[in-house]
Design brief:
Layout (H helix, E strand, L loop, with lengths): L12 E15 L5 E9 L2 E7 L3 H5 L7 E11 L2 E11 L18 H12 L5 H11 L2 H9 L13 H19 L5 H10 L8 E3 L3 E3 L1 H19 L5 H12 L15 H22 L3
Parallel strand pairs: 3-5
Antiparallel strand pairs: 1-2, 1-4, 2-3, 4-5, 6-7
C-alpha cells in the first residue's frame, strides 16, 4: 500500500501509486538530463527527481497519469523530495481515481437512493420506462455516481453529477407542487436526465480531464444521443418535449429555436441555474 504524501519522512523507501501533476525534462549543470515530476495524492504534493535513465523513464508515462513509483525520500533545501529509481504508468487495476481526486462529501448510497425515489415520482408509462431502463443499466449507473458536473465550477468533484441531479430533480418536484399546471412527468424526467451526457464528458487520472467526445460534442449533445438510443418506444410528442428541455437547460439562446417552447423547459433552466449558482457561491464565493 502506498505511503501517503503527508506521512513521508527523510530516509523512507517509497513504493506506491500517485498522481503525476507535473513532468519536465531538465538539464543539470553537468549537462546531463534529469526528470522532474510532481507527485500528488489526497493528502498533499511532493517533488520527485530521476537522475538516472531520465529519458527511458520519461517514455513510460505522461503528465496526468496515475503512476507507480519506487524511490527514496530525501531532504533538499529544507523540503522533501523523492529520488526516483523507477516510475511508470500504473495499470488500471492499480489506479483508483477516487484516491487522488476530490470527491463528494455526501454519501453516495444515500444519493443513489434519492435518485430512485425521485424516478418513482414519474408515473406516465413512456417516461417511467425510460427512467427504469437508465437506472437499470449498471455501467451507466456507476458512471452517474462517479462523474463530476464540471472540472472547476460547481460540483467539481467525483460524485458531483448525482448530487446536482438529485438537487435539481427535488426542486422540480417542489416546483410542480407549487405550479400544478406543469407536466410533472416531463419536468421531473428532464431534471433527472438533463446532464446525462456528463457521464461521457470526462476522463479520470491525476486530474479530471475532458474526453475527446466531450470536447468535440459537449454534454448536451452526448446526452441527447444517449436518450435517443433509449427512447425509440417513446411517443414522438413526448420525445420532442423532453429533448427540448435538455437542449435548453442552459438557456433558450443555446437551442435552435432560440426560445423556450414550454413552461417545463423554462422551469428546468431556472432550477438548474439555481442549484448550480448557489453551489458555486458556497464553494467559490460570490463573484
Amino acid at each position: 500500500m502506498s505511503s501517503t504524501v503527508a506521512t513521508l519522512r527523510p530516509g523512507q523507501e517509497v513504493a506506491g501509486v500517485y498522481a503525476c501533476t507535473r513532468k519536465d525534462r531538465l538539464t543539470a549543470r553537468t549537462g546531463a538530463p534529469y526528470l522532474a515530476v510532481e507527485l500528488r495524492d489526497s493528502t498533499g504534493r511532493v517533488a520527485a527527481r530521476a537522475f538516472r535513465d531520465a529519458d527511458v523513464l520519461a517514455g513510460r508515462f505522461e503528465r496526468g497519469d496515475l503512476v507507480r513509483v519506487r524511490g527514496r525520500v530525501e531532504r533538499f533545501r529544507d523540503e522533501l523530495q523523492v529520488e526516483l529509481s523507477d516510475i511508470a504508468k500504473a495499470s488500471d487495476a492499480e489506479a483508483d481515481p477516487s484516491s487522488f481526486l476530490p470527491v463528494a462529501y455526501r454519501d453516495m448510497e444515500e444519493l443513489d437512493g434519492f435518485l430512485e425515489h425521485l424516478a418513482r415520482e414519474v408515473h406516465g408509462r413512456g417516461y417511467a420506462a425510460l427512467l427504469e431502463g437508465l437506472l437499470g443499466d449498471e455501467r451507466l449507473r456507476a458512471e452517474w455516481r462517479r462523474a463530476p458536473c464540471t472540472r472547476d465550477g460547481h460540483h467539481a468533484y467525483l460524485g458531483g453529477l448525482i448530487e446536482h441531479t438529485v438537487a435539481v430533480a427535488q426542486l422540480a418536484v417542489e416546483t410542480c407542487a407549487l405550479h400544478v399546471r406543469l407536466n410533472s412527468d416531463l419536468l421531473i424526467t428532464a431534471a433527472l436526465v438533463h446532464d446525462l451526457g456528463k457521464t461521457r464528458e470526462f476522463t479520470y487520472g491525476a486530474e479530471i480531464a475532458v474526453s475527446d467526445e466531450g470536447r468535440m460534442l459537449g454534454h448536451v449533445e452526448l446526452g441527447l444521443e444517449m436518450l435517443r438510443e433509449r427512447s425509440r418506444s417513446l411517443p414522438r410528442e413526448e420525445w420532442l418535449a423532453l429533448s427540448h428541455c435538455v437542449l435548453t437547460h442552459h438557456g433558450a439562446d443555446r437551442a435552435p429555436a432560440r426560445r423556450f417552447a414550454s413552461a417545463e423547459a423554462l422551469a428546468l433552466y431556472r432550477i438548474n441555474a439555481l442549484d448550480a449558482s448557489i453551489k458555486g457561491a458556497l464553494e467559490h464565493g460570490l463573484s
